[in-house]
Design a protein that fits this description.
Mean pLDDT: 78
Shape: globular
Strand content: 35-45%
Distance between the termini: 31 Å
CATH superfamily: Regulator of chromosome condensation 1/beta-lactamase-inhibitor protein II
Order of helices and strands: EEEEEEEEEEEEEEEEEEEEEEEEEEEEE
Radius of gyration: 19 Å
Largest sheet: 4 strands, antiparallel
Number of helices: 0
CATH architecture: 7 Propeller
Oligomer: single chain
């Protein structure tokens, strides 16, 4: 589904590791700031950054200036777009060049991109974000060795590691040309553990990396999950150990179009337009009244019909619907417009129409619109809402 180079009429959507195809139609959008763009590659929201692929096929990001080749600590807020490891969107970035795909970790500082070169190699940056003593590594673009021929990409990671049980680290996975899945770890000391094929999976078309678990969709539209399972986030009907890594297992009973692994819950949009979620429901993120009891089997989210796709944030979820609107549910951490601490009933996001996709991060959300453009809402501490300010907004801007 995503093994082709971008053509003007087709956009490939990167949503915290989810990829799907849409037709790019309508008039050319107004260019934003100094980005030279006749279209926008759909947006990917990270924990404090937002990135797109512009018309020149460069990675352009907003927010914390990670990957720009400098070594300032702490992260400087930035209200202007910038090219990772390059001086400006109008200049060719050093060491990165044109890209095919880009994905940001929703609850971690890392971003990875697939280069538009003969091998479709992968580069990453922003994974050194917990070590101020070696911050320069966080601001540089690093080539991932041994990974090429990539046609789908996802990045995740442990945002707040459990003391004594795991290091701060970023995990990334890529679907290769033969539909196998390879994954690697970007460690907080700047080293990259070798990529390895994930065994026990069928041919894969899409992948989504959460905080401590991962999910993928097979070419037959079945959903597979693996990793930690202390909240039932693997959807297998069992609650597992908080320290055990469980192998891939299929989730029976439905066929998925998209899947999104969050911190401790997972959601999938189905081929019949419904959305199902499972795992932690402490804040109503799977669409049921908040409870300390997790749900280890998929639950239908009431109030959602004809979903294009779904994206899982920290402890909330959002779906882009076929009518061009967005509905969100769960913690108010990323919802903004919802009164109160949470809502388990999906609520329509105001001031949005023509939405093709949505990308939920830790505390902000971005939507891809047609005619092609982006709107974001939530926290804006680093300028990640792309509106040229650092003012947080409970409704989509600009």
């Amino acid at each position: 589904m995503i093994n082709e180079r971008f053509v003007v009429r087709v956009a490939q959507i990167c949503l915290a590791g989810l990829w799907l195809s849409i037709a790019a139609c309508g008039p050319s959008p107004t260019t934003r700031s100094n980005i030279d763009s006749s279209y926008y590659e759909p947006v990917t929201a990270g924990v404090y950054t937002t990135c797109i692929k512009d018309a020149t096929h460069l990675a352009v990001c907003y927010g914390a200036m990670v990957g720009d080749g400098n070594s300032t600590f702490p992260y400087p807020a930035n209200t202007n777009p910038f090219v990772p490891n390059g001086p400006a969107p109008t200049s060719a970035p050093h060491g990165l060049g044109p890209i095919l795909l880009i994905a940001a970790a929703p609850s971690h500082g890392a971003v990875c991109a697939v280069r538009d070169d003969t091998s479709a190699t992968v580069v990453c940056w922003g994974f050194q974000n917990h070590d101020a003593s070696n911050f320069a590594l966080d601001r540089a673009v690093v080539v991932v060795p041994g990974v090429s021929g990539v046609k789908a990409l996802s990045v995740g990671g442990v945002a707040n590691p459990t003391a004594g049980t795991e290091p701060t680290k970023t995990k990334a996975c890529a679907v290769l040309a033969n539909n196998s899945l390879t994954c690697w770890t970007l460690q907080d000391d700047g080293t990259i553990l070798p990529a390895a094929i994930v065994g026990g999976l069928p041919p894969i078309s899409k992948v989504s990396i959460g905080s401590r678990h991962s999910c993928a969709i097979g070419t037959d539209n079945t959903v597979w999950c693996w990793g930690r399972n202390e909240y039932g986030q693997l959807g297998t009907g069992q609650i597992g150990s908080a320290v055990t890594e469980y192998p891939p297992a299929a989730i029976p009973g439905f066929h998925a179009v998209t899947v999104s692994a969050g911190v401790s819950h997972t959601c999938a949009s189905l081929d019949d337009g419904r959305v199902m979620c499972w795992g932690s429901n402490a804040d109503g993120e799977i669409g049921l009244p908040p409870a300390n009891q997790p749900f280890s089997t998929p639950q239908v989210v009431n109030g959602i019909a004809k979903a294009r796709m779904v994206s899982s944030g920290w402890n909330y979820s959002c779906a882009a619907l076929a009518d061009g609107t967005v509905k969100c549910w769960g913690s108010n951490k990323g919802l903004g417009f919802v009164l109160g601490a949470w809502t388990f009933v999906p609520a329509t996001v105001p001031s949005l129409s023509g939405v093709m996709a949505v990308s939920a991060a830790d505390t902000h959300v971005c939507a891809t619109l047609l005619p092609i453009g982006i709107k974001c809402w939530g926290s804006n501490m680093y300028g990640e809402l792309t509106d040229g300010t650092t003012n947080s907004s409970p409704i989509p801007v600009p």
